Amino acid sequence: MKSFINKISRATKEYSVVVLFHEGDKIKTPLLSAAETEFVRGKISGKDNQVAVNQMDRWVFVQSIPGKYKGTRMLEELRKSANILHGQVVSQKIEKLAIEYSGKNMDVVLAFAEGLALSNYQFLKYFTKPDDKVYSLKEITLLGNSVARQEVDELNALVEAVYRTRDLINEPNSYLTATQLAREIQAMGQDSGFSVEVFEKNRIKSLKMGGLLAVNQGSVEPPTFSILEWKPANAVNKKPLVLVGKGIVYDSGGLSLKPTADSMDYMKSDMSGAAAVAGVFYALAKNKVPYHVVGLIPSTDNRPSGNAYAPGDVIAMYDGTTVEMLNADAEGRMILADALAYAKKYKPQLTMTIATLTGAAARAIGKFGIVSMGNASRKVMDEVKQSGENVYERLAEMPFWDEYAEMIRSEIADIQNIGGADAGAITAGKFLEHFTDYPFIHLDIAGVAFLKKGDSYRGKGGTGVGVRIFYDYIKTQAKQK
Ligand code: BES
Ligand code: MN
Ligand code: ZN
After folding, report:
1. What residue owns the CA closest to ligand 1's atom 7?
2. How many domains are there within the chain?
């Protein structure tokens, strides 16, 4: 398959071109006449930092990069500008767009290409006539030789990974059962090169994964537990990094049925953590990142039924811990707990969970970031946070004090699955921590995983949040060692 993002040395006429330049620098491009350059210069001062010139065969867009933003913030502004340009590109039915940049910071070009590519995502599978909806843009090309082929390929694989993650999230539960999710993960493994093992219901039963089985009790569909592994021969780490993703393919709340009018409408997205884990494995394998990573994905839907687990039930988890279940809607932690206990056998250097775990996380910080917490060393916590800044999947760190664990003590069992009205995101994290014996970081993506209204290049629906921060973190680690 031809890659979506490419590089060429000169733009022939079938390419429209966007010229990027830093505010204050001269606009110099062979594509514009002196008069056109003058016209652009006049328009681009002030608020307008994007100007379009309609030539005979093509469009030339000029994009100024405001000087007031630096570093990672500047790169984010570029992705967002690319999203705005994408609107123009598709309304003009442009198919091929080249990016021209004569500056020194190649991250500028990559960020702009990334913003364009992520903006071009669509989920059209269920339209009977998708053709008239399809975006025109078919190729993004980087002009010149400054960006290495390998970096272009890497970006392509990462964008593809985000696309596949979004597809999984946008798929309704009518298609994406736990079994189907496992199959999709296997397909992603085959397409990229990571290995996948799927435990089916019998195996899950014989392993006594009590949390996953309890949530699944009300379902007519069997649960799955998928184990992903990327272990290249040249891995630089001895102990693996483990990533655990919440794979609730539909969350009705179970017997503690979700109460308000629209609170169930998008709960097909409750497997966004699982999708992000699968997505990052896809990117790691495609790009052959020399790092050993294990992924664990417990999956089921959460439904009420005559047989559903009921508030008040006491459940024996995979590690033997007893849990008084007081709210069937706090199901994510029940299935993640078993995966976290299972993770112990890998003796991980670090385990990270990623989950649409609590409405409290969404209420705390909204759609602009990920709620994070953990007990890993300050150094590790900060490295992950830095990756969040790099890709703008930013972390807002909560306290993770031992005292919060007191809020999930039960009267009749070891712990209970809810902690009361306050600090809901943190008590959920503390519940998870109970099942760990290694450095642990938890990412709650409830606010950002699925956006009804959309947000720039993150798009409408599933955003794929998690893929880019994990990829950046792992790549950075692989380089450091
Ligand atoms: N999947 C939900 C959390 C969620 C809410 C994600 C909104 C995305 C958007 C989770 O399983 C849940 O229901 N959490 C409960 C926990 C409570 C019962 C302790 C919540 O946040 O209300
Ligand atoms: Mn729930
Ligand atoms: Zn849920």
Report:
1. 359
2. 2
Range of the domain at 119: 4-143
CB 271 less than 6 A from any atom of ligand 1: no
User: What pLDDT does 386 receive?
Assistant: 98
pLDDT along the chain (481 residues), means of 10: 82 94 92 95 84 95 95 98 98 97 94 98 97 96 90 98 98 98 98 98 98 98 99 98 99 96 95 99 98 99 98 98 98 99 98 98 97 98 98 98 98 97 97 99 98 96 98 97 71
Closest residue by Cα to residue 195 from 173, 227, 220, 166: 227
| Residue 422 belongs to some domain of the structure | yes
Q: 92: Cβ–Cβ under 8 A, 6 or more apart, which residues?
A: 16, 59, 136
Q: Residue 366 in 3-state DSSP?
A: helix
Predicted TM-score (pTM) of the model is: 0.98
Task: Decide: 289 in ligand 1 pocket, CB within 6 A.
Answer: no
Would you call 258 a catalytic residue per the annotation?
yes
Residue tagged active-site, from 43, 183, 208, 258: 258
Residues 364 and 248 in one domain: yes
Could you confirm whether 303 is annotated as catalytic?
no
Q: Looking at the structure, tell me whether residues 310 and 393 fall in a common domain.
A: yes
**Hey, CA dihedral for 144, 148, 149, 151, is it positive or negative?**
negative
Among 58, 79, 164, 333, the active-site one is 333
